[in-house]
Amino acid sequence: MHRRQHPSAERSGRRARGARRLRALAVPLSVLLLAEVGVTAGAAAAADGAQGEKRSGTASAPVRNGAAEAPDERSARAAAAAQERRIEVLGARTENTTLWANPDGTMTQETHAGPVRFREGGKWAGVDVDLERTEDGSVRARSHPRGLELAGRTGSAGGDLVTLGSGAHRVSLGWQGALPEPVLRDNKATYEDVRPATDLVVEATRTGFEQYLVVKDRSAAGAAARVTLPLTAEGLDATQNADQSVTFTDTRTKKAVGRLPAPVMWDASRNEQGLAATNRAAVDLKVAGQGGDLELRLAPDRDFLADKDTEFPVTIDPAVFFGTNFDTAVRDGVTEDLSASIDLPVGREYGKQAARSFVHFPRDYVVSGKEILNAELNLYAVWSDSCEPKSWELWDTGLTSSATRWSNQPAWRSRIATSTETLGHSPACGSQWVQTDVTGLVREWAEADRAENAIGIRATDESDTTAYKIFASGDAPSNGPSMLVTYEVPADPVKDHVTYWNDVLQATYRQIGGAPGPLARAGAMMHGAIYDAANSAQCARGAVKCLGDPYLVKVASPGELPDINSAIDHAAFDVLRSVYPQLNFDQELADARATIPAGVTGAQRAAGTSVGQQAATAMLQDRQNDGATGNTAYTPSTAPGQWRPTGSGSAATPGWGLVKPFGLTSGSQFRPKSLPTLAGGPEVLKSAEYARQVNEVKSLGRSDSTQRTADQTRAALFWANDLDGTFKPPGQLFEFTQTVSRDRGLSVTANAKLFALTAFSMADAGIVAWDAKYRTDLDLWRPESAIRLDGDGNAATTVDPNWQPLSQDRNGQHFSPPFPAYVSGHATFGGAWAKAMEQWFATDDITFTATTEDPNAVGVTRTFSSFSAAANENAVGRVWLGVHYDWDGTEGVSSGADAAAYVAANKVRSNTAATWVAYETLKNLGGCEALGRKLVAEHRWSAYRCERVTTANTDHALSVK
Predict the structure, then answer these.
(1) CA atoms within 13 A on the CB side of 127
(2) Cα(182)–Cα(163) distance, rounded to whole angstroms?
(3) What is the DSSP letter of 780?
(4) Beta-strand runs (E) in 540-693
(5) Would you give the distance in Å from CA 507 to the centre of its chain?
(6) Residue 240 above 60 pLDDT?
(7) 470 in the Ramachandran plot: left (φ > 0), alpha (ψ -120 to 50) or beta?
(8) Which residues pair with 959 in a beta bridge?
(9) Angle at the Cα of 708 from the Cα atoms of 703 and 712, rounded to 5 degrees
(10) What stretches of 594-635 show up as alpha helix (H) in DSSP?
C-alpha cells in the first residue's frame, strides 16, 4: 500500500511537523486477503464492530445491565424497549456490518467500507494488531483474522519474513539474509541493520501487513536500486498488466481477488504545508516465477536516486492488496492506480493537480426498501493543509475500478452534502472523525436496484491548494469509512405491555359499565401503578435512568435488574383484580407474560414481578377510604330547573365529587363558573342566555331535527358512548391516546408516563364534573325536562311534551344520562384529555383519526387536526345529541383543561439536577441528539447536551439536567 506520512499521525511512528526524522529508504508491502480465497476479514475493532483496535464498544451502560446484545431482531427489539438502551442483533453480524435495535422501535445499522471483524473458533473476534513475542521467539499479532506471524531472529539463509493464513491459501513474504531480533512497538516490528544502513520494518494492519525498508543514509541508495522479494502465494496466479500493475486470481474459482498497483517512489521533501510524499517517481516492477512461487523484482528510477536534490529517505512502494472492499482516488495528471492507498485525497495538493476520491458501499439488503430516518457518513480526517475551514463536497457517483483515472471518472450524478470541517493539520485542528448527513442519498439507495453504490468526495474549489485534505481509506489499519443508517421497520413485533393492559382495561369497561367516574378511577389506579412499576424498573439501572418523579413509590430492587414488562404486568394485574374482584384476569396475565422475550432470565422476571406487586400495593393502600365506595344519598327535586330522573335510572354516583382526587387538592379546586354568573343574574331560568341555550338544543338536539346537519348527527352519535357494553367516555379517550401513541411511535416507557398523566387528568376531571353536578346550588335539569315541562317562567321558551333527544339505546329508545346536566362529564373528560395530550406533546396541533364504540355509529371514524378540536366537538356534540346545553360543554372543557394542567405541573414530573449529569455514551452525534430529544420529549429530563468524547472515534457523551 502507499504509505501515508502525515505529521499529525504519530500512531505509526510519524512525527509532528518540524520534528527530526530519520533518513530512511522505505519499501512497504501490504498483503490483505479476500473471502474469495478463504478469508473472513476483520478490522482493528472490538468484536462489536467499533472502529479502531483500541476503540470502545457501543453505548456505555451501567454494569447491572448485562450484555447489550440479543440473538435475533425480535428479541433485540424487545430488550431494547424494556431496557431503554440499544441492543445489538448478534445474528445479523457480518464482516462489515453491525445491526442494533433502538429503544424507540427503530433499527440502526453501521456498514463499513471494508471488513471490521472475523470469525475465530465459531465466534466473532475483534482485531488487535499489536505485536507480541511467542515462546519460540517468533512474533504474532494478538488477534488477527489470518493469524499474522512474523519471523524472530533467523540464520543467514533468511526465510519467511511474514506469513498470513495457512493451508491452501497461505501467503508468505520472504527475506534473503539473516534477520536480527525485532524491536516491537505496538503494531510495528523493526529489524535493524538487515543491510548496511538499512532497517527492515513490518507493520501489522487489520487485514494484512505492510513491509518496507528504511535506508538510513545515501550510501545505501545503490543497494536499493535493485530489490528482490520472494513471495509465496499458494492457490493464486499472478498476471502482470500493461500498466505494470499485477492481478492475483484464485486458481480454483478464477476470480480476481487481489491486485498490486504499479509501484511509485517518493523522497522525504515536504511541500510548503508540511506534507510529505509529494516528490514522486516511477518504479519498474517485474513479476518472475510461476504458480505460487514468485519474486517481486523492483527497479527504482536510478536518476531519481542519484539526483542531488532528492532528499532521503526515499520510499519505494509496491503495494499488494487483497480485499473485499474498494475505494480509490484519482489525480489530474497521474496515471497510476491509487486504489491500494490508505489515503483518500481531496482537493489540490501544493505543487500538484486536483485529486478526488471514491468510496464503495455494497448494497445493503437489510435497509433496502425501508423507510430511512437518518444516515451519516463517517470519515476520519488525517490531514489538512491548514486549520482554516475549507469547503468540500459529497456526491452520488457511478462505480469505479482499479482502472479509473482522472480522464475516465464515473458520472458525478448529484451533490448530496457540503462541509467545511477541516481537520488534521495541527493540534489546533487535530485528526478526528467527520460526520456528514447523507440521509437523502441513502433513501435513494434503499429504493435502487444496484449491487453496489459509490460516494465521491471532492473539494468545492479545486484550484485552492489550502483546501487540500486527506481522509483514511478502507485499507487503513483503522478508522476506515463507515455509514450509520437508522430506519423504521414495517411492523413492530414487540408487544407494548402498557397498551396491552390498556386494551384489557377497555374490555373491563365494556363488562362492568356504569357511571364514568368509577371507570376513570380504575384507569388512573392501574396506569398510576404501571407508571410507578416502570419507573422503579428504570431507576434500578441508575438514578439517571428514572422516568421522573414517582407518583407514590419508587420500589428498590437490590438484586437482579427487574424486567420492566413483568413489573408492568403485575402492577396492572394486581390493581384490576382488586378493583374488580368479580372478574378473573389470570389469562390476561398469562398472555402478557408469554410475550416477554426468552432472553429475560427467571431472576429478572421475579424482580420485575416484585416491583409491580409493590407498586400495585402502594396504589391500593393509597386509594383505601378515598370516598369511592361511599353511598351518598340523593333526593331529586321537582322544582323547576332542578334535575329529576328522566326514565334512564336514578341519580348515578351523586357523591363522586367528594372522592379524593389523584392530582388535585379537592374536587372543587377547579369548580366551573356558577350558572348565575353565566346567566347574568340569580334568575337563571328567566335569563335570555338560558332561553337561547334551551332553544338551541331544542332545535339541534331533537331526535328528528331538520336543522341538524348529517355530519352533526354523525358527530353526536360518534361521541355518545353512554351505553353499557361500550368503552364509555374514559375508554374512548384512552383509545385516542393509544392511537396517537402508535402514530407517533412512542416507546413502552413513554407510554407508561403518558397514560398515567392522561389517566390522572381524566379521573380528576370526573371528580370535578360531579362536584359541579351535585354540589352546587343548582343541579341543572336535562334539556329533556326543560323542554317537556312547564315552569321555567321564561317567555322565550315553549313547552313540547313530545320532544325527544337524539340520544338512543340499542333498541332505538331515546334517553338522557341519569345525572344533572351542568357540567358535561363528556366535555370535562375531553378537556382534561386534550390538555394532558397537549402538555405531553408540547403542541395541540397533532392530527389523528379517532374511532367509537357507540352502537349507533358503528364503523364511523373522525379525523381531527388538534386535540382541542376533538374536545370541542365532543362538547358541542352533546348539544347535537340533545342531552346538554352549550355552557355544559364550554365550562366542562375549561375546568377539565385546568385540572389536567395542574396535574401535569405537579405529578410525575421530569427528573431534575442542578448540574449536567452523564446519561450515556453513543456512537455518533446523530444518535446522541436523537436520544437527547427523546428524553426531553418524554419528560424524563428538561434539557440535554451532546459532547464529543474523543477524537479517536465518533462517540458522543449525552448529559442531561
Answers:
(1) 32
(2) 15
(3) B
(4) none
(5) 34
(6) yes
(7) beta
(8) 918, 945
(9) 100
(10) 602-622
